[in-house]
Amino acid sequence: MALMITDECINCDVCEPECPNDAISPGDEIYVIDPNLCTECVGHFDEPQCQQVCPVDCIPLDPERPETHEKLMEKYRIITAA
After folding, report:
1. What is the pTM of this model?
2. Per residue in 67-82, pLDDT tens?
3. What are phi and psi of 6, to 5 degrees?
4. How far apart are CA 55 and CA 18, in angstroms?
5. Where are the beta strands (DSSP E) in the chain?
6. Listed GO molecular functions (predicted)?
């Protein structure tokens, strides 16, 4: 699944630079994650880095975008042209 940022986001700016796919950007009111670029850090790290640094724990899995590990790896390969 891609990740999402909930409205509990406090705009602390720590998640954006941690994303290896540049999937996180400032939204109108809170940060947002582009689900087409989010691989949950598959291919880069063992765990999603944004979740690791978020001080308010507002980055859950997006239930609207179920993806298997294999699908996330495929997305990683496309994004990185690996």
Report:
1. 0.92
2. 999 999 999 999 998 6
3. -90, 170
4. 13
5. 24-26, 31-33
6. 4 iron, 4 sulfur cluster binding; metal ion binding
Residue 75 structure tokens:
């997305």
Q: List the structure tokens of 69.
A: 């590990």
- Residue 19, amino acid: C
Length of the chain counted residue by residue: 82
Report the relative pairing of strands 31-33 and 24-26 from DSSP bridges: antiparallel
Contact 35, 62 (CB under 8 A): yes
Whether the Cβ atoms of residue 75 and residue 67 lie closer than 8 Å to each other:
yes
Q: In terms of CATH architecture, what is 14-79?
A: 2-Layer Sandwich (3.30)
Q: Where are the domains of the chain?
A: 14-79
